[in-house]
What does this fold into?
Amino acid sequence: MKIEGEHLFNGSREEVWALVRDPEVLASLLPGTTDLKQLSESEYEGSITLRIGPVTGAFSGKIIVEDENPPESCSLVAEGEGKPGFFKGTGDVELLEQDGGTLMKYGGEIQIGGKLAGVGQRLIDMTSKSMIKQGMKSLDKVLAERTGKE
Amino acid sequence: MSELIEVTVNVNSEEYRRSVEPRMLLSDFIRHELSLSGTHVGCEQGVCGACTIQLDGAAVRSCLMFAVQADGHQIRTVEDLGTMDELHTLQEAFWEAHGLQCGFCTPGFLMSILPVLEENPEVSEETIQRAMEGNLCRCTGYQHIRDAVKQAAEKMVAGGEA
Amino acid sequence: MARLIGKPLKRNEDPRLLTGQALFVDDVELPGMLHAAFLRSDYAHARLKGIDVSAALEREGVVAVYTAEDMGDDWAPGPPLVIPPPTIEEVTFNTRTQVPLVKEKVRHAGEPLAVVIAESRYIAEDALDDIVVDLEPLPAVVDIERALDADAALVHDDLESNLAAHLVQTKGGYQSAREQADLIIKRRIVMDRGIAGAMENRGIVAYWDNKQQYLTVWDTTQSPIPIRNGLAGMFGLSEHQVRVIAPFVGGGFGPKIMMFYPEEVVLTWATLKLALPIKWIEDRRENFYATTQERGQVHEVEMALTEDGRILGLKDDFIHDSGAYDPYGLTIPLNTQCHVLGPYDIPNFSSELHVVFTNKTLTTPVRGAGRPHGVFVVERLLDIAARELGIDPSEIRRRNYLPNDVFPYDNVIIDQAFANFIIDSGDYLPAMEKALDMIGYKDFIENEQPRLRAEGRRVGIGVVSFIETTGVGPYEGARVTIESSGDVSVATGVGTQGQGHFTSFAQVVAEHLGVKVSDVHMVTGDTAQFHWGTGTFASRGAVVAANAMNAASSIVRKKILELASELLDAPEDELEIEDGEVRVADVPRMSISLGELAQKANPLRGAVEPGTEPGLEATAYFGPNYGATAFGTHAMIVEVDPETMNVEIRRYVVVEDCGTVLNPLILDGQVHGGVAHGIGNAFYEQLFFDDNGQLLNASFADYLIPTSAEVPTIEVGHTVTPSPLNPLGSKGAGEAGAIPVPALMAQAIENAIGEAGFEILESPMSPLKLFNLYYGDKEQ
It folds into this structure.
C-alpha cells in the first residue's frame, strides 16, 4: 500500500527538523506508542497498540532514520511485529521552504501481513490516513508551543 | 485464566447455571457447556448466520455475544423446535421442499426465519427474502429454502399458528 | 416392481439435520478431550531460523507444544495422491508435497509452524502468542506469469525453477488447421482463485486408546477410507487398528478430499504420543489460508475457424497455479484441457501446460475442478468468433456440436484418470433447443431486447453449452443386508456432505428389494462399517457408488427369491417382492416377510450348506472403464446498470443431462447450488493476494459468498441420455451447475452492453472490474 501526502508547518525547516528528530515528540506523535527508546543516533525501539477495524493488538518494532540530510530530507524505515501480524514501512520525507513556513512532503510504502492483512486490509488505508492526520496535528501543536507562533 | 463468572440462562424453557470465563462466546457456551450442538459455528464473525439463536424472541448471532451477556435472558435454540418424529411446521416444510443439503447452515436459517413467521405468517416474497439474506448457504442456491419458507408460511396461515 | 428410482422423494437424513441431532465433527465430545490450535506463519515465504516454545509450555492448562523437530522420524512430507504415471509421454512432474509442520522454510501464509495442545481451545490460542518465532522473510512468488522468470525466487530450493509440471497434449495437427483457416481468434484469458466456502470448516478429533491399541479419527473428509489407509501406513498401524469416521460433513466441494492435510497428520501423531483424545476445529480465518483453493490459470489461446464458423483447430497454452505444493498432481489442468474441447468437434488441438509453484495456499479441486476454466476458454472464443463472423451465438454452437453417431468419441488426449478422454455418450442439440425454448431466446432477441434497448435499458442474453466428465473410477462398493426386522441396512465407503446419499442410494436398493425407502438405513463414511473405496469426488457418487448399490441389491434380491421359492414351494418367476414381503403372484395368502426370511437364512440350528452363505447379504463393487460425461446448456438474461455496472440476473435457465436421474428433487438441489457457486465464481468471489503473498480478504466480510439476494430463481429442465457404461445409466451432476456460469455471464453481459470491442476475458468479474473495463475503454 502506498502513502503519499504533504503538510504545511508554521515554522522554519530547522525548527521542524528538530521537532521530528526528538524522540519524545515522536513518542507523543502516534497514539498508542509506549516505551519508545532511542538505541542510537538514528534508531528507535518501542511498541505501539493499534486498532484497525476488527484487529487490535500490540506491535513491537523499531524506527530507523536513514540518509539524513538536515534540514532537508531523510528516509524512514519502520517495522513492527505482534499478535495481529506485521508491518514494514519505508518512506521519504522532504522539507521545503514555502510561504515562510515549511512544506513537508512524504511518501512511502507499507507492507502488511498476517491478520492485519487478511482481515484488516480494507481499513488500513483509512486508519493510516487518520493516524497521519492526528500525528501532524500534534506536531503542529508542539511546534506552536516551541516557536510561540500560532 | 481469568476469574469465573456465574451465568444463569433459560434455554428452551430449562434453567441452566454455569460458571464461565467472561470471554467465553455464547455460541461455545451453548454448544460445549450446555451440549446443545444443533447450533453451528461457521465464521465466528457474525457474517454466515449459522449460529443464529433467539434471545428473548429475537434472532441473534450467538458468536457475537459473550455467554455472560446472556445472563438472565431467555434463549431458544433449534432443539426447541420439533422432534425427529414430530417436526415443527417450518422444519417439515424444509423437509418437503428439500430446503437443506449438508444441513450445517440449516439451524441458523430456521432460527432466523421463525421469528418473522411467528410475528406474521402472511409474508411477502420480499419479507422472506429479507429474512434469509443474513444467512449463508453454499449447498442449496437458496431456491428450495425460499420454497420451504413459502410453504411453511402458507401452512401457518391456514393453521392459524400466528 | 415399484419404480422408486427417479422419484422426487424427500430425504431420509433430513429429520436428524433439521432438529440439530446430526453428528458433525465438532459435536464429538469425549472424556478428557484436549484441544489443539496451530501457530501459522504470517509470511508467505520465509526461512525458519528458530522457534522458542518454552513460555507457551509454562502456561497453565497447556499440555504440550510440538514443532517439526519434536516429530523426529515421523516428520515427512505427505504422500503424493495422483502422480502421472511414467507411461505418459514427455511429462515433467516435480513432486513436492506438503509437510506436517514447517521445518526449514515457510512456503505459504498460514502454513503451520507449531501446535499447542491444551485443556481448552481458548488456552491453546492464548499459548500461541507465547511462542517466539524467528522467520527471515524471503521474496514471494505470487504472479504465475512471472513464476518461471530467471530471477524469480524459488519456492522449492532444490528445484532449478518453479516448474511443477510440463505437458503437451495434441490431437490432429493444429498448424495445418491454422493455415487453412479463414479466421483466427487469439486472446489472453485469465481465471483467478476463490475458496470452496463450505459452511463447516474442517475439523478433526483423534483418539488413540492405548489399552485397546485402537485409533479413532473423526474427520471432515470426503475420503475416509484412503485417510484410514494412509494414517495406518504412516504410523505403522494395521488398518484394522484404525477407524476413520466422516460423520455428517457440512459441505465438501472438493477441498475436503485433499490428503493429507497437516492437521490430520499432526493430530494423529499427537494422540499416539499422549493417548488422549484431541480436537481441532479450523476457524474461518484459518480456512482462508489452510484449506485448499482453486482456479488460478492464465491462457494464451487461439481458435482457427472457417468463414461459416466451423472450428478447424484450437491451441491453448496455459499456466496453472499449483500453490506451494502439488500433492494432487495434474487433475485440475487435465480437466481444463479436456473441457476446452467441450461438446464440440475440434479435429485439431494443441495444448502446452506449465504448472508452477507459488507462495500461495495449494490448489486442489473445488467444485468444477478445472472444468469451468476450459469451458470459459472455448465458449469465450466461440462468442468472439460468432461476433466477427456475424453468426448468432446459439448457431455457432449448433454448427460445431459433435454429431450423435460418433459416440463413444475418443478425444485422443488423456484425461485426469490418465486414460484417453473418451466421451461415452451425448445428444447436445436437444438440450440447447430446450434451453432456448425455456428462456424464450427468439422472442427476447427479436422483440423484448429491441423494445427495452429503445428505453435505454441494457439487457442481454447468453447461451452456453458444456460437458462434465463425471463418475471416474477406480471403484466403490456397497454391502446390503436384510435385517431380521425386515429393514435393510446398507454400508458404503463414500462419505456424504449433503448430496442426499442416504436417500438416492436407498432408492436404488429399495427398488430391488421391495421395501420402503425410509426402511433402508444407510451408513456412509465409517471405515468400521465398510472399508473398501475411495471417496466422494468428481461427481461420482450417483455413478460409481449407486451402481455398486445396484449390483449388491440385485444379488440380495436373488438370494431372497431363492430362499423364498424353497420355503413357499413356488417357482422364482412366480414370486414378487413388495411391501417388505415375498408373495406368490396371484396368491396373496402365500407370503413371507423379509424379516422372517432373514432369520431363516441365519438359523440357530442346522448347517450352512457348502457353497452357500448365511444371511441375506451381499457386497458388490462397481468400477467403470472410464467416466460418464454429462452435458447441458445454460441460458440467462441479465440487465446491466450502466452507472454502477451492477448486474442483475433476470432469468436463469438450466437444461441438464446427467443420464438416468435417481432423485430429481435432489438433482435440482445440486444444480441450484452449483449455479449459485458459479455465480459467486463469475461475479463476486475472488481472493486477492498482494506482491508478498499476503491474502487481503480472508474473511466473509471481505470475500463475498452469494446470499439469497444474489441468486435468482433457477429454472431447471432435463434431457436424458443414459450412460452406456453402467447398468443404471447414470452420470454425475454435482459440479455441473457451477461449470458454465462464468462463461455464460460473460456472454450475457457483453450482449447487454452491446458495443463492439467490449470483451470480457477474465473471471471473476465484479461491478468494479466491469466499470473499469467499460469506462476505461471509453477514455482511450
Remarks:
- The mean pLDDT of chain B is 96.
- The radius of gyration of chain B is 16 Å.
